[in-house]
Amino acid sequence: MKILITGGAGFIGVNCAAYFSRHGNDVFIFDNLSRTGAKANADWLAAHHPCRLIRGDIRNFAELTQVFVECGPFDLIIHLAAQVAVTTSVVNPREDFEINAWGTFNLLEAARLHNKDAVIIYASTNKVYGGMEDLRIGEIAGRYAYLDQPEGIAETRPLDFHSPYGCSKGAADQYCRDYHRIYGLRTIVMRQSCIYGYHQFGVEDQGWVAWFCIAALLDKPITIYGDGKQVRDVLFIDDLVRAYEAAYEQRDTIAGKVLNIGGGPENTLSLLELLSLLERFKGKKIPVDYGDWRPGDQKIFFCDISAAGSLLTWKPFVSPELGTERLYQWVDTNKRIFC
């Protein structure tokens, strides 16, 4: 296959590029290298895998079109280029819109005009479901729990965009769906939960599992906003890449569909549980501070992944404990790049 990965020097992108390159595919990366860690990831790829890096910005339609004309046509496009933090979107909503909504529109138009047969996987987000204030939530065994949603949030949940980030990603999510309906593009929308793993340069407001690992190993201050009983489903990067591969393999039956992709009810962590794991790996207590709840922070979210399981013949294999240990060890081995 010939594969284009936008945002390919990001955390998910570099893992996808490495995997598909190892399996004999021609991989092209389109990235402006603006994110923290992108240059280090690009250098690692250049040293280990024969991927071609193309410097460019998803907001620039001319640059993007040139990639399709000169390097295409592509069999698979994995669209990962994005602004990824809610807090950043609140500070700079225009940039958030231009990258997430306008950038995705540019990609869809470039594909419609120059590469209509490509399979396009779009990395959406569970934030499109909003705050879900109507759900009953309780506390069980020191963590928050859904009282009426034992399997988690399904794709049938009404959309309710909150924050500029939710709006920009949600708009892109719906544009991808509609370009299948109107123009016949083979788009697949993946509404992703918390993804974590190798090559992730997590920060306090995005990539929380990686951030806790980095902070624990480098003795950086950790602040828990709220009480730490918040629960999220987590998915290790290897399982996500397998889901992408399965989506391409099932392209003729799932084109146009929207799928939740996450750890599901069997792979969840609270902040306090993650902290406990890290203390075990480190062998000593990790000091933390507590702050007020952040606006819009959900007490719990995990998604229903039964549709993805059925349509992709897929399920997560890496447990939160094993995945966190793998990430912790990777950060420990590569501490110099975080200093």
Please give a structural write-up.
The protein has 339 residues and is an alpha/beta fold. It has one domain: Rossmann fold, CATH 3.40.50. Helices cover 42% and strands 20% of the residues. The chain is built from 12 helices and 15 strands. It has helices at 11-22, 38-48, 61-71, 86-91, 93-114, 163-183, 208-218, 237-249, 251-254, 271-282, 306-312, 320-333, and strands at residues 2-6, 26-31, 52-55, 76-79, 119-125, 137-140, 143-146, 186-192, 194-196, 222-225, 231-236, 258-261, 268-270, 288-291, 300-301. The protein has a 7-stranded parallel β-sheet, with helices on both faces. Strand 6 and strand 7 (143-146) form a beta hairpin. Helix 7 (208-218) packs across helix 12. The longest helix is centred in the first third of the chain and has 22 residues, at 93-114. The radius of gyration is 19 Å and the shape is globular. The mean pLDDT is 96.
Which descriptors would you attach to this protein?
alpha/beta, Rossmann fold, 12 helices, 42% helix, globular
Oligomer: single chain
Question: By CATH's scheme, which homologous superfamily applies?
Answer: NAD(P)-binding Rossmann-like Domain
Integer-rounded radius of gyration: 19 Å
CATH topology: Rossmann fold
Under the CATH scheme, the architecture is 3-Layer(aba) Sandwich
Question: What is the percentage of strand-forming residues?
Answer: 15-25%
Average pLDDT reading = 96
Distance between the termini: 37 Å
Q: Into how many domains do the coordinates divide?
A: 1
The profile of the biggest β sheet is: 7 strands, parallel
> Unreliable stretches, pLDDT < 50, 5 or more residues?
none
